[in-house]
Structure formats: C-alpha cells, structure tokens
C-alpha cells in the first residue's frame, strides 16, 4: 500500500477512525512527521491537537537507527538489540541526557506560553507517519498512558509486523492501514516523504490551538 504523502495517509486514517468523530478526541502527534497528519485528523474528527514529545535513542554508528526512546519525564525504553548495536551503559546514559535536553528545547519551541493539553479522561489518539522499530511509539504511548486517558489509540498508516507486536499491548486499540511483510523503511511507502521542518510543525500547532480556543472557553 502506497501513500501520495502524509496528508493522503492522514485522510485514509481519518476514514478508519470515523468511529471516534463526535467524541472530541485528543490527537497527539509525534513530531515532526506526525504533526501534519495530526492537524488534518483533528479537523476530520472534530478533535483537538497537541504533540507528545519523545525522542529516539540513536545507535552509536547509525544515528537513524533507534536503540530505544525517551519521553519528557525521563522514562526510557531500551531495545533488546541496543548492546548488539554497540551501545554500552555509559553511551546509553549519555544519549538519554542529550535527548532529554532536546525534548526541553522542543517543548519551548513548539508550545510556548501554553501548557500541554491533559489527556486525562479523554479519548487520546497518538499518530505518527509509520513504525519501523516501534521504539518512538512505545515511549509516546507510555507517556500518554501515564496521564490516564479514557481510551488510548495508536494510529499509523504503515508499520512493520515486529513493531506492531511491540505496541499492541500498550494501547487499547491499534489502527494500522498496512503491515507489509517486506517492510524495511517507512519512507518507502510514500511517494513524497519530505522532512517536516520545525517552522511547519509550529505553524500547524498554533493554528490548531487557535481553532480550539472558542470551543474550550
């Protein structure tokens, strides 16, 4: 299954998530790729948009390869393959500190002057543009679950079967449009998969915040 771009994938996810329309779901996007998708989903499902800030822990010799992940609280998931990828305890601790600093910078950049939307008691849908190792989504679901949402949904257009097996126990429902056996990279399933820049993510989050103010006042 191929998607034209992230917005095409979000449109298709919105159709699969129509049961949640009218329940004012809280769409929590994993930056940066999940933000354009979350913005569209919030519109289609009449929900609110915010970010769930998590960072992958990078392999020493391959920064694009995740050996785990960390959320804003400092909780971290370290994958079983981390040591095989060359990450010893000292490296992992250093990487955690680095990514926590980055998360602090991202929070100040993305939501200045406004607190995160509290998922407590709400229908929360965590969205990203795909799952490769599943590490980032594991941290995202853990972070949201800690706030006690009424229902926690993981929504992605495409994922590896291995990553789905890891995240299913962490969500009340997983909505995934395609889990091909020959998965090896998320971008392979998009015809256009340009990097989402901070400026775009900030603009979309600001727009969503402005739209939600009248209904929350």
Automatic annotation (TrEMBL):
GO terms for molecular function: glycosyltransferase activity. Keywords: Glycosyltransferase, Transferase. Gene3D superfamilies: 3.40.50.2020, PRTase-like. Residues 10-188 form the Phosphoribosyltransferase domain. SUPFAM superfamilies: PRTase-like (SSF53271). Pfam families: Pribosyltran. It comes from the Bacteria. This is Phosphoribosyltransferase family protein.
């Amino acid at each position: 299954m191929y998607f034209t771009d992230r917005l095409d994938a979000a449109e298709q996810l919105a159709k699969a998530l129509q049961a949640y329309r009218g329940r004012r779901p809280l769409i929590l996007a994993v930056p940066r790729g999940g933000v354009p998708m979350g913005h569209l989903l919030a519109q289609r499902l009449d929900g609110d948009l915010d970010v769930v800030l998590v960072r992958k822990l990078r392999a020493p010799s391959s920064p694009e390869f995740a050996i785990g992940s960390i959320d804003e609280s400092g909780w971290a998931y370290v994958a079983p393959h981390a040591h095989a990828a060359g990450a010893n305890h000292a490296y992992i601790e250093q990487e955690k500190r680095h990514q926590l600093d980055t998360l602090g910078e991202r929070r100040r950049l993305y939501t200045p002057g406004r607190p995160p939307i509290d998922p407590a008691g709400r229908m929360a849908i965590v969205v990203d543009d795909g799952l490769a190792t599943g590490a980032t989504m594991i941290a995202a679901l853990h972070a949201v679950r800690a706030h006690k949402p009424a229902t926690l949904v993981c929504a992605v257009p495409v994922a590896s079967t291995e990553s789905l097996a890891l995240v299913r126990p962490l969500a009340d429902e997983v909505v995934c449009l395609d889990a091909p056996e020959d998965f090896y990279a998320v971008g392979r399933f998009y015809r256009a998969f340009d990097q989402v820049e901070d400026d775009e993510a900030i603009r979309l989050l600001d727009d969503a915040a402005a739209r939600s103010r009248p209904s929350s006042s």
